[in-house]
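yo

u said u wanted the structure for the complex thing, so here. seqs first:
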Amino acid sequence: MPERIEDTLKKMMVERLFLKIKPESILEDAPLMKTLGVDSVAVLEMVVGLEETYGISFEDEEFDVEIFRTVKSIADFVRAKQAKQAKAAG
Amino acid sequence: MMAAIEDLVTFQSGPFRLVGMLHRPAGEPKGGYVFCYPFGEERKSAHRAFVHAARVFAQAGFGCLRFDYRGCGDSGGEFHEATVDGWLEDIQAAAAAMRSQLGRVETGLLGLRFGATLAACAAERIPDVAHLVLWEPIVDGRPYFAADLRKKLIKEMLTRGKTSGRRDELLQDLERGKGEIDLDGYKVTGALYAGIAALNLLHRIAQFRGRCFLCQVSHTDKVGAHVSALMECYTKCGAKPAISSVVEEPFWNKVDFAGCPKLIAATMRWLRESAA
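structre next:
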């Protein structure tokens, strides 16, 4: 069974952002900017990680501060992108 | 043990007076390295790490010259006058200035990120560069600049809730010579962007035959395709490349100070092995 996007995301954040915490300690509804100090460099790192991991691409007009508010909001965005890409692929 | 000495030096590069700091080792230098800073905001974040690296090099017997390119830091000129060709001339002038201070020593260039790209290009045109140290080199200028621009737009989105435009439109304007792009206060002109976008090391490297240390710095020790491709390129042209990867925070992206002890240690190992 594939890993939940939220869990993959937490691991990716810990690894790519060099966070000194355990992935499971990141709460899915916690505001990332406030709790983890996520800034523009961290967001870019996450975007690159998401693109590599899920084969999705973020278009410039899709950037919205709300997407990066929590782990859950990022995961919802990834699911929506995957569904859109699957539909486009027929 | 005698202490290394640090001297402020100035030298001419074309019409510009450039400023640098020369780290002299105690005793006869085993060689000399010109340190090539990265671009823009990354230069500021990498500054202290470069100072520390130069001091470690000097303690190990290598002279180093850290300097500011034209239009940057303490050097003469304005940023809007900067071009990639101008910065390559600056590296050449810095290498000559370092040799005039240290005597006839084997010359090396060390660069980080876009500074590594410039160092690799400069090594193609300066015949007596024998050693290259490339830290997390940018292999292709075009996607690198696009990523920098993406970071700018993300920052705008986080701070203002909206972005000033789309990357493709902003880049098209720049290519048409319309205006500038402000990257954290560095106003990039069309001429500078054209120079950055035209740099692809895989197409530029053809002459260098010396020793070369390619070091990836990232969240993973799995060597990426960009560094592997560069290694292959250097091998094909008859250089002696060594490759390494260190898992270390990208210190050139940090607002607060972040050192690079693993990177410096890996580089010192390579220097010792090269000298052996």
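The first strand of chain B starts at residue 5 and ends at 13. Chain B has a mean pLDDT of 94.
cya
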